[in-house]
Amino acid sequence: MRVARWLAGAAVLGALAYLNFFVFRAPLLVKLINVSLFSALFVLYRVIRGPSAADRIIAVDILGVLSIGILALLGLHHDQGFFMDIALIWALLSFVASLAFAKILEGRRLDD
Amino acid sequence: MIRHTIGMAFIWLGIAFDFLGVLGLIRLPDVYNRLQAATKCVTFGSAGLLFGVFILKGFTSFGFKVLLAVAFIFLTSPIAAHAIARAAHRSRIPLCPESVVDLYEADHELNKEGGDAAA
């Protein structure tokens, strides 16, 4: 059973890598953005099926950090600087939201 | 040309660390293990990726904004991770059954037996 699950996961990842890097015809930066987007999809799995609330909080936090990387690569691909403004504001809001969620999970008030 | 090579190497390294961190986030059995893998790898991954973009763009306004984002991630991501881990442990989310030792819980019990420690 474990071997079957390992083989299924390896087959899915290998198929994604093959389709992304050898079939899909695009510039290299677009392929790298695709890898980050696959990672965000896997993080969404943990958001939906997390056993506890802390898993979902961690996953949303990691999703924010991944989005910063995706935005930086998009700005590099389009050669435009305003993507980094969005990324900076996203980082700030993600940090504040993580701290607020952690305090609520711990059972304290927000002005404590 | 050499700058382009070094920047793309940093970007590849960052993408690889991002992907491995997310894989750890899916596969590991416990909240704390997941937090360890995900935070360490994604922080270094995204920060390395942004540093690669900074090397590619040089000292322009884009590059300085990327450098600011790197500094912000390095300052804030460990704080958020620490807060989440502390909150998860205080809200009694159990460890996985294979765990060996829980020193934070032992320390907490010791403080409670001490009596007058209000915290």
Fold topology:
The complex is a heterodimer of chains A (112) and B (119).
Chain A lengths: L1 H22 L4 H21 L4 H26 L3 H25 L6
Helix pairs in contact in A: 2-3, 3-4
Chain B lengths: L1 H26 L3 H27 L3 H30 L12 H12 L5
Helix pairs in contact in B: 1-2, 2-3
Can I get a quick summary?
By secondary structure, chain A is an all-alpha fold. In chain A, 84% of the residues lie in helices and 0% in strands.
Number of domains of chain A: 1
- The value of Rg of chain B in angstroms is 19 Å
Question: Approximately what portion of the residues of chain A adopt beta-strand conformation?
Answer: under 5%
The rounded distance between the terminal residues' Cα atoms of chain B is 58 Å
Number of strands of chain A: 0
Question: What is the overall number of helices of chain A?
Answer: 4
CATH class designation of chain B: Mainly Alpha
| Mean of residue pLDDT values of chain B | 85
Q: What pattern of helices and strands is seen along the backbone of chain B?
A: HHHH
General description of the model:
- With 112 residues, chain A is an all-alpha fold.
- Chain A has one domain.
- Helix content of chain A is 84%, strand content 0%.
- Chain A has four helices and no strands.
- Chain A has helices at residues 2-23, 28-48, 53-78, 82-106.
- Chain B has 119 residues and is mainly α.
- Chain B has a single domain (2-114), classed as Helix Hairpins, CATH 1.10.287.
- Chain B is 80% helix and 0% strand.
- In chain B, α1 (2-27) packs antiparallel against α2 and α2 packs antiparallel against α3 (61-90).
- The N and C termini of chain B lie far apart (58 Å).
- Chain A binds chain B through residues 32, 35-36, 38-39, 42-43, 45-46, 52, 54-55, 57-59, 61-62, 65-66, 68-69, 72-73, 75-76, 81, 84-85, 87-88, 91-92, 94-95, 98-99, 101-103, 105-107, and chain B through 11-12, 14-15, 18-19, 21-23, 25-26, 31, 34-35, 38-39, 42-43, 45-46, 49-50, 53, 56-57, 60-62, 65-66, 68-69, 72-73, 76-77, 79-81, 83-84, 86-88, 90-91, 93.
